[in-house]
Amino acid sequence: MSHPTQYALRHTPSAEEFVAAQHSAEFQELRHKQRSFTFPLTVLFLAWFILYVLLAMYAPSFLSIKVFGNVNLGILMGLGQFLTTFLITWAYVKYADKALEPRARAIRERLERSAAAEPAAAQDAPRTAQTSPRTAQTSPRTAQDAPQESPATHDAATRRHNDNR
Fold first, then answer.
1. C-alpha distance from residue 37 to each of 40, 43, 119, 158 (Å)
2. What angle do CA 127, 136, 121 make, to 5 degrees?
3. Whole-structure pTM over 0.85, yes or no?
4. What are the tens digits of pLDDT across the range 102-115?
5. What segments bear the compositional bias annotation Basic and acidic residues (predicted)?
6. Is residue 71 within a helix (H) or strand (E), and if so which, with residue range?
7. What span, in angstroms and rounded, lies between the C-alpha atoms of 153 and 3?
8. What's the pLDDT at 49?
9. Long-range contacts: 131-140, Cβ < 8 Å, 24+?
């Protein structure tokens, strides 16, 4: 008998476990890191956007200053809005990959591994019947039914299984 992969034994946290995780120091640090990056950038971008709108409303002669050819400050500032949006998105993705995702992954893995604290006998025993909310039918699940593939394949198979219920 082969042992199920770590993905087959993934634990679905209860509401109490989620609340406890939200109050943990590592979750609070994750929230602080995320907010300390997003809030200042949001304020700066909104100030930049409001400046552009106010200039368009109250200083159209300033925005109509020609820079080269038929291109004026208004066109450059308008394009700058798009450029700023893409730059902020790029910077956030880089920051999230480096500073947020590792912390979020550690919290998620800790929550999903909490089933490992249960006795080994309980893990080897067949799971009780699970009820599908859409069909209200039960389907027994055992450790032998657990997929033995990679995480990506397992997630795709789970989505297909859930869609077919």
1. 6, 11, 42, 34
2. 5
3. no
4. 999 998 888 888 65
5. 156-165
6. strand 71-72
7. 18
8. 96
9. 132/165, 134/165, 135/165, 137/165
Average pLDDT, the chain: 77
Q: How many residues does the chain have?
A: 165
Q: Radius of gyration of the chain from Cα atoms?
A: 26
At 79 the pLDDT is 96
CA distances (Å), 110 to each of 62, 86, 116, in order? 56, 34, 10
Q: Mention every residue, 6+ apart, whose C-beta is less than 8 A from residue 7.
A: 147, 151, 154
Give the DSSP H or E segment for 92.
Answer: helix 73-95
Three-state DSSP class for residue 146:
coil
Helix (H) or strand (E) holding 131: strand 130-131
Q: Nearest to residue 7, comparing CAs of 156, 140, 134, 119? A: 156
Identity of the residue numbered 1: M
Which run of H or E residues covers position 68? strand 66-68
Q: Locate the domains of the chain by residue range.
A: 10-118
